[in-house]
Design goal:
Keywords: Ribonucleoprotein, Ribosomal protein, RNA-binding, rRNA-binding
Number of domains: 1
Subunit structure: Part of the 50S ribosomal subunit; part of the 5S rRNA/L5/L18/L25 subcomplex. Contacts the 5S and 23S rRNAs.
Protein name: Large ribosomal subunit protein uL18
Radius of gyration: 14 Å
Oligomer: single chain
Number of strands: 4
Function: This is one of the proteins that bind and probably mediate the attachment of the 5S RNA into the large ribosomal subunit, where it forms part of the central protuberance.
InterPro entries: Ribosomal_L18, Ribosomal_uL18_bac-type, Ribosomal_uL18_bac/plant/anim
CATH topology: Nucleotidyltransferase, domain 5
Number of helices: 3
Shape: globular
Length: about 120
């Protein structure tokens, strides 16, 4: 058994360290994807609570395993964040690579009005 970190854990740690260095007071848009669903939430780390959230679990008519569903989640989380008064965020992709569903979610959130 290996005692080292997996590549996913290394990417996650590297990404989060960079986010903390440049985030300032901005909340972070955290993304998690699984094989069936994708989840996004805007987290205020200073207060320690979630400002807005969206996922494919709440959309009964869409499967989470495609780019169209990820775009819809990005749009919905941006609308919820704007309604809560958040306009600027930092994008926390975790250990996921920035392509496919993660990229579609980010682009949809940008188009809906979030700045990052």
């Amino acid at each position: 058994m290996s005692k080292g970190m997996t590549l996913f854990e290394k990417r996650r740690r590297r990404n989060r360290t960079a986010l903390r260095a440049r985030s300032g007071t901005r909340p972070r848009l955290s993304v998690h994807r699984s094989g069936k669903h994708i989840y996004a939430q805007v987290i205020d780390d200073k207060q320690g609570h979630t400002v807005a959230a969206a996922s494919t679990l709440t959309a009964r008519d869409q499967s989470g395993a495609n780019v169209a569903a990820a775009s819809e989640v990005g749009k919905r989380v941006a609308e919820a964040a704007l309604a809560a008064g958040v306009t600027q965020v930092v994008f926390d992709r975790g250990g996921f690579l920035f392509h496919g569903r993660v990229k579609a979610l980010a682009e949809a959130a940008r188009e809906a009005g979030l700045e990052f």
